[in-house]
Amino acid sequence: MDAFINDLIAYSPQIMAGLKNTVLLMVIMSVTGLIGGVAVFYLTLSRANAVRTWVERYISFFIGTPLLVHLFLMYYGLPQLGVHLSAFTVCIIGFTLNVSAYNARYLMTAYHGLDKTELEAAQAQGFTPPEIFRLIILPQVIRLSVPSLTNQVIQNLKDTSVAFLIQYPDFFAQVQEIASTNFQFFKAYMTAGLVYLVLVSIIVLAARRLEKRLILPGFQT
Amino acid sequence: MALLEVKNLVKKFDDKDVLKGINVELSEGQSKVVMGGSGCGKSTMLRCLNLLIQPTSGEIIFKGEDITRPGVDVRKLRQDIGFVFQHFALYRHLTVQDNVTLGLRKLKKMSANDATEKALYELERVDMVEHRHKYPAQLSGGQKQRVAIVRALAMDPAVLFLDEPTSALDPQMTREVVTVINKLFLDNITMLCVTHDPFLAKYISDSIVFLDKGVVVAEDIAERLFYDHPDPRVRHFFLSVIDHR
């Protein structure tokens, strides 16, 4: 055990750098995924059939295929077409496309639960469709989707662990390196599991505080 | 000249004729109630008049302009027509006060202070000031409808449309809301109200338009329409909705 702890201490700069990369990736994709999800959700409300059809195909594709396939396709596949992207760029694009599809689906589900007479009332008051989206629909669907959206943030954190497969030096990549150096696989992966658990617990605590702030009377889900 | 003049209004949904040539006039300061059996086209008519539903044909002259013609500023038109819905339709993520000020701030471009001042003045008129920080889920049905009326009135519309304003309320709350609408009637607010409720109709109308199968069958004051009207369709309807004992 002492030897393993000594290894952890010796590799701590590397581990901390990996941890930083993991958190950075998780934060960026959670933000871009939320913005993307809102944009995709907006398009699902389009009056144009063609737009709705393509958006639905996009969502189905990204929900229906593994994230790793998207990452491999961009990192290992695109260079064959002459497009070379860094691991970080692939992660940001790949995760954003994936997370946006999931978030859009959560927002759509919440939208189906809205009282549509409110939208008719807003229309009757003179609000335009973009105003109705911004002032009436979005504040409500976000509130109704808080549990799903925060679960997605947790999922985002856990999903970062596949990024090492395209050479992104995240936390799990560093743990993998230590394990392959000292062959203490069990201890290394247990440590990784505990670290992820701590990070998830922090997100859960933050999510609960956010839910308390955002949930209004009549919005309990 | 009438504030609102509806000429030969027709609305078809696919092949179903819902409105078959409606003619109605509403003058400034006048209050009319539209009554009729379920499915006679009352609510469709009201929604056609502010273009929430596009009419199939006919003319709707509002303030001297035919609003069915292309190029009409629908956004501006709707700001001039207050609309109160059967199921209140309050924005449930906003407080009572914010429900009233939203349109004032975003559509009328009032400052936050002016909008709040106006909202409080209007809420005072319906005894809802003390509830201004509550959310719709914390209000009774009657209170919600009072707020919905205030939200529409705060925009200073030329006319107020009410679509079955008491249908979703119990008798006590109905009385509460009828009192408020009656006050508006006595203040000469121009209103067009669709309802099944003869009690409401009697206390808030100068005259009642009776609709049957998409056409106007009769128009008269409550007393003449409710009892012994020569048209059997009218007589039959009011026999069924009024307790004649």
Overall description:
Chain A has 221 residues and is mostly helical. Chain A has one domain: MetI-like (MetI-like fold), CATH 1.10.3720.10. Chain A contains 9 helices and no strands. In chain A, helix 6 crosses helix 7. Chain A is flat, with a radius of gyration of 21 Å. The model of chain A has no long low-confidence stretch (mean pLDDT 92). A 6-stranded mixed β-sheet of chain B has the order 6-7-8-3-9-10, sandwiched between helices. A 4-stranded antiparallel β-sheet of chain B has the order 2-1-4-5, covered by helices on one side. The N and C termini of chain B lie far apart (41 Å). Chain B is globular and about 55 Å long. With 245 residues, chain B is an alpha/beta fold. In chain B, 37% of the residues lie in helices and 24% in strands. Chain B has one domain: Rossmann fold. Chains A and B meet through helix 6 and helix 7 of A and helix 2, helix 3 and helix 5 of B.
Question: What descriptors fit this protein?
Answer:
heterodimer; A: 221 residues; mainly alpha; MetI-like fold; 81% helix; B: 245 residues; alpha/beta; Rossmann fold; 6-stranded mixed beta sheet; globular
